[in-house]
Amino acid sequence: MVQMAYKTDLFKDILSDTTTRIRQIVQDDTELLANLGSLNDTGWIKTPESITRKILFKANQQPEASFEDAHINKVYDVVGLRLVIDATRLPHETQEQHENRSMSMCFRAKQLISQNWETLSFREKDYMKYPKSNGYQSLHLTAVVNYHLTKIPVEFQIRTEEMEMYANTGPAAHNRYKENFMDDLLSNSFPVNAPSEEKPKKTKKKRKRPRTKKPFPQPKSNRRSRPRERRGEEKLDYSDPAWLESTSATFAAPNVFFA
Q1: pLDDT: is 175 or 202 the higher one?
Q2: What is the pTM of this model?
Q3: What is the mean pLDDT of the chain?
Q4: 81-127 pLDDT, tens per residue?
């Protein structure tokens, strides 16, 4: 496939040519035409805004993917065609039987597409046997359409009328999907817009010193000597004459003579 760029005119021509060809294929198949009640085909071309949402969605689902994986070349449903098939109603047929016949015709249409175009196997999804969690049912496959030597992928969605009604009005409605998508985008839930998370700073824990028993009480270095009055001793008056006489008598040296 060629490197895709957004070319509206090219996409419109491919969609018109594919729609004309699929109608002709259905008209040529007698097995499908014999039980066909109605066939409605609806085509779409994704807008640049829708393609951007798709790329951001892929980047969110696969954060480790490279830039080439989240590119327009990896968006395979830029051009698409939806086929809504309803079988003819038979007399005395229940709604369940009619729905089962319509589903079998959807599988027949898928087989015809695979016979006339090259399909991408990794893009085939059977939501009829395995519905989505919201109840959505359909057959999806992507065909590579060769238009004037230009190969462009075109997605086909095949479903019954009952499935189409549920996809438009039920919990699986596409407009609800878009609203939820934009809510997630605006809330910065995608890694493209999400602010970088700051790692919490590591704080070193202070190591507590082990307590050791001191063998002897340590005297305080800043301990001041208490005054004599606090020790219970009598305060002496050094200017008293009686104290001076007693002191001189006590410390008076004897008269000693040396020969």
Answers
A1: 202
A2: 0.64
A3: 77
A4: 999 999 999 999 999 999 999 999 999 999 999 999 999 999 999 99
Copy the structure tokens of residue 10.
């090219």
Q: CB–CB of 168/40 below 8 Å?
A: no
**What is the structure's pLDDT at 213?**
63
Provide the pairing of β-strand 150-160 with 139-147: antiparallel
The pLDDT tens digits for 40-73 are 999 999 988 888 888 877 777 666 655 555 566 6
120: phi then psi, degrees, rounded to nearest 5: -95, 115
Largest CA distance in the chain: 166
Q: What is the DSSP string of the chain?
A: -PPP---HHHHHHHHHHHHHHHHHHHHH-HHHHHSEEEEEEEEEE--HHHHHHHHHHHHHH-TT--TTTSSGGG-TTSEEEEEEEEEPPPTT--HHHHHHHHHHHHHHHHHHHHHHSEEEEEEEEETTTS--TT----EEEEEEEEETTEEEEEEEEEEEHHHHHHHHHSTT-HHHHHHHHHHHHHTT-STTTSPPPPPPPP-PPPPPPPP---SSPPPPTTPPPPPGGGGTPPPP-TT-HHHHHHHHHHHPPP-----
Query: Hey, what amino acid is at 212?
Result: T
